[in-house]
Amino acid sequence: MMIDSGMDEKVHNFFGNGTKQTFFSKQNDSIQLALNKAKQIIITHEHGDHIAGVLRNNNYKSIASKTILTYQQIKTLLNKPQMTELKIDSAQIKDFIAVDFYDILPVAPGVVLIKAPGHTPGEIMVYSQLQNGKEYLFTGDVSWSYMGINEKKQKPKDQVKRIGEDTIKIQFQLDWLNTLPSKGIQLLVSHDDIIQPELVKKDILKEGLVIQ
Predict the structure, then answer these.
(1) CA atoms of 89 and 78, how far apart (whole Å)
(2) Residues 79, 84, 90, 94: is their CA dihedral positive or negative?
(3) Contacts of residue 176, Cβ cutoff 8 Å, sequence gap at least 6
(4) What confidence score (pLDDT) does residue 76 get?
(5) Domain ranges of the chain
(6) What is the pTM (predicted TM-score) of this model?
(7) First and final CA of the chain: distance in angstroms?
(8) In contact, 113 and 126? CB cutoff 8 Å
(9) Amino acid 16: pLDDT
(10) Does this chain's domain 1-100 share its CATH topology with 101-212?
(11) Alpha carbon of 54 to those of 93, 123, 184: distances in Å?
(12) Per-residue pLDDT for the chain (212 aa), expressed as one digit of tens each?
């Protein structure tokens, strides 16, 4: 199973805001291999750095056929994509595993999708319990850092405005996430580059992808 799909170099360059940034092609090759071998792909939200690896994949049809998208995510990609490279047409809806649910949706043993609109209309979080009983929650982009969750603090105002976040919904989610570590649930925050390396050192996470 893959959660999110990375992005190709063209979409990567979009996030540089005109500044050329290094694109790690070897890591992207590993992601492409993982996407091809995965039995199921889950997308946390509609932004290019999370979904472009599916939409702009050389094996698009094969990859899309095992990718779960919510109807909220699909609506964004149809009508208001983050960039033109992410736009889909109505004929493509049938390419995906399109789902709709009110609050939570089990999708595999020990794996549950949790609706979390706010960062985008279709944002979800992903809960997973492994066979050893350990519990994890992939938080998507509700926060970009563990510190934001620890302090229940939202993103800078200019970023909130740029993205168009719903601050009321985000605050509700931050308050909830803040309570989970004390219950033994390990949070995994997508963009954090401070705490995440510490989790690798503690062997809570592993560097890179384990592809069987």
Answers:
(1) 6
(2) negative
(3) none
(4) 98
(5) 1-100, 101-212
(6) 0.95
(7) 11
(8) yes
(9) 73
(10) yes
(11) 13, 16, 32
(12) 999 999 999 899 888 776 788 999 999 999 999 999 999 999 999 999 999 999 999 999 999 999 999 999 999 999 999 999 999 999 999 999 999 999 999 999 999 999 999 999 999 999 999 999 999 999 999 999 999 999 999 999 999 999 999 999 999 999 999 999 999 999 999 999 999 999 999 999 988 888 87
Under a CB-based contact definition with an 8 Å cutoff, are residues 34 and 209 in contact?
yes
Output the 3-class SS for 135-180.
Answer: EEEECCCCCCCHHHHHCCCCCCHHHHHHHCCCHHHHHHHHHHHHHC
Per-residue H/E/C for 41-84: EECCCCCHHHHHHHHCCCCHHHHHCCEEEEHHHHHHHHHCCCCH
**Helix or strand (DSSP H, E) at 125:** strand 124-129
CATH topology of domain 101-212: Metallo-beta-lactamase; Chain A (3.60.15)
Q: Which of the four CATH numbers 3.40.50.300, 3.40.50.150, 3.60.15.10, 1.10.10.10 does domain 1-100 have?
A: 3.60.15.10
Q: Give CA–CA dist 55/64, Å, rounded.
A: 7
Question: Which amino acid, one-letter code, is at 146?
Answer: Y
**Three-class SS state of 124:** strand
